[in-house]
């Protein structure tokens, strides 16, 4: 379990440190205070040298730009447009700088760390089998002036070529994928990779797609965890008795719910966005046992009266399955529900609230224990 976190030069964090992390951590703060970026940094750290999370972050934020390649060797010298990833945005100040190093680490979990650096190719040793030159399809070989050097605390290092326009191409990432055959699942859609189901999971505001749900369900069905998922859905609809998956490849029509007194099952999509959010949250929580769950805007789609029960579920599941949770919110109802559920829990040290406070270019974390948060909620003291 992470007890502390240091982030340097990642997105909005120039030099940030947070200590005293709990099993369940609720992160609050104003817009652009770094809540989502903090979750990203934690996820990069626990996944070590695995590029899949980074690619997903860039994709989800829309940090993608088009570039052109010559197709002269194929059809009449036509120009083809492709998309690459704008890697500069992960660096503080949005600039590619050879003097700047992104560092995410835990001092108490050493050597748990990851680093990103911009290097010139001649200054590093090329790993066997890696091409440090960009070879555009249908074009000539072009030397890469800079590399993104990705490394972790175990001494693993991976160089990724960067185009002159600052983009990293799908070809560059696929080269890395060939040397890590179990790290990624390639897809036919616009995303280069899909998120693996591992001991850590990042639940964004868009919830889990049908394919991911199906993989989760294979690990849950006919186990005691299935009862936990049904219990979570009963927070929103007490009449739900069972869940089933069909062969239809849709997150709305491929999941069926059996309700008490109903002869025919109901599609998940007919039950509203809150039900889908609760299903995504519950499935992720019970699947990443002994791991780490990150949830961005955890209150998304949930009615305020359901949020205390949602937090009761999170606290009990985290304790029972040895799960550490990081979640963000900007909702006062979500904070109040967190406080109420935490006050009821037998060990209220299981949860803490951290407010990200930004002054000029400095971001710091203000910690609220269960007792301090109870006072703040009771007296309506603003902590967001």
Describe this structure in words.
By secondary structure, the chain is of the alpha+beta class. Strands 2-1-6-7-10-11 form a six-stranded antiparallel beta sheet. It has a six-stranded mixed beta sheet with strand order 13-17-18-3-19-20, with helices on both faces. The chain starts with a strand and ends in a 6-residue tail after the last helix. The protein is built from nine helices and 20 strands. Strand 4 (64-70) and strand 5 form a beta hairpin. 27% of the residues lie in helices and 28% in strands. The radius of gyration is 23 Å and the shape is globular. One of its GO terms (molecular function) is ATP binding. Residues 24-331 form the ATPase AAA-type core domain. Pfam families: AAA_21 (PF13304). This is AAA family ATPase.
**Rg, nearest Å:** 23 Å
In total, the number of strands is: 20
Mean pLDDT: 86
Shape: globular
Strand content: 25-35%
Order of helices and strands: EEEHHEEEEEEEEEHEHHEEEHEHEHEEH
Largest sheet: 6 strands, antiparallel
Strand order of the largest sheet: 2-1-6-7-10-11
Distance between the termini: 25 Å
Assign a percent range to the helix content.
Answer: 25-40%
**In terms of quaternary structure, what is this?**
single chain
> Which regions have little confidence, pLDDT < 50, spanning 5+ residues?
135-141, 181-197
**Number of H/I helices:** 9
Structural class: alpha+beta
Provide key terms for this protein.
ATPase_AAA_core; alpha+beta; Bact_Antivir_Def_Nuclease; 9 helices; about 25% helix; single chain; six-stranded antiparallel beta sheet; six-stranded mixed beta sheet; about 375 residues; ATP hydrolysis activity; RecF-like
């Amino acid at each position: 379990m992470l007890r502390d976190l240091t982030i340097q030069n990642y997105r909005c964090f120039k030099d940030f440190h947070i200590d005293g992390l709990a099993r369940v951590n609720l992160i609050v703060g104003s817009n652009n205070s770094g809540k989502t970026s903090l979750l990203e940094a934690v996820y990069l750290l626990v996944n070590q040298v695995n590029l899949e999370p980074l690619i997903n972050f860039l994709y989800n934020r829309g940090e993608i730009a088009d570039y052109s390649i010559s197709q002269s060797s194929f059809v009449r010298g036509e120009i083809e447009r492709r998309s690459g990833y704008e890697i500069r945005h992960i660096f503080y100040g949005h600039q590619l700088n050879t003097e700047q190093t992104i560092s995410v680490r835990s001092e108490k979990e050493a050597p748990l760390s990851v680093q990103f650096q911009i290097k010139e190719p001649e200054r590093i040793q090329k790993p066997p089998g890696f091409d440090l030159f960009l070879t555009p399809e249908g074009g000539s070989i072009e030397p890469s002036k800079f590399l993104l050097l990705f490394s972790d605390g175990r001494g693993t290092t991976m160089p990724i070529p960067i185009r002159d326009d600052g983009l990293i191409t799908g070809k560059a990432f696929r080269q890395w994928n060939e040397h890590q055959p179990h790290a990624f699942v390639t897809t036919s859609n616009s995303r280069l990779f899909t998120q693996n189901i591992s001991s850590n999971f990042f639940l964004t505001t868009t919830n889990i797609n049908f394919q991911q749900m199906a993989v989760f369900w294979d690990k849950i069905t006919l186990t005691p965890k299935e009862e936990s998922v049904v219990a979570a859905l009963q927070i929103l609809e007490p009449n739900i008795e069972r869940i089933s998956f069909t062969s239809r490849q849709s997150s709305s029509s491929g999941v069926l719910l059996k309700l008490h007194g109903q002869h025919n099952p109901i599609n998940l999509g007919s039950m509203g966005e809150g039900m889908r959010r609760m299903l995504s949250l519950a499935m992720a929580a019970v699947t990443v046992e002994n791991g780490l769950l990150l949830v961005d805007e955890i209150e998304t789609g949930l009615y305020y009266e359901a949020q205390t029960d949602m937090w009761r579920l999170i606290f009990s599941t985290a304790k029972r399955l040895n799960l550490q949770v990081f979640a963000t919110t900007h909702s006062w109802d979500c904070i109040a529900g967190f406080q109420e559920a935490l006050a009821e829990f037998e060990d209220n040290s299981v949860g803490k609230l951290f407010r990200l406070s930004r002054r000029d270019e400095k971001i710091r974390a203000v910690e609220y224990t269960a007792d301090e948060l109870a006072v703040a909620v009771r007296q309506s003291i603003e902590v967001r």
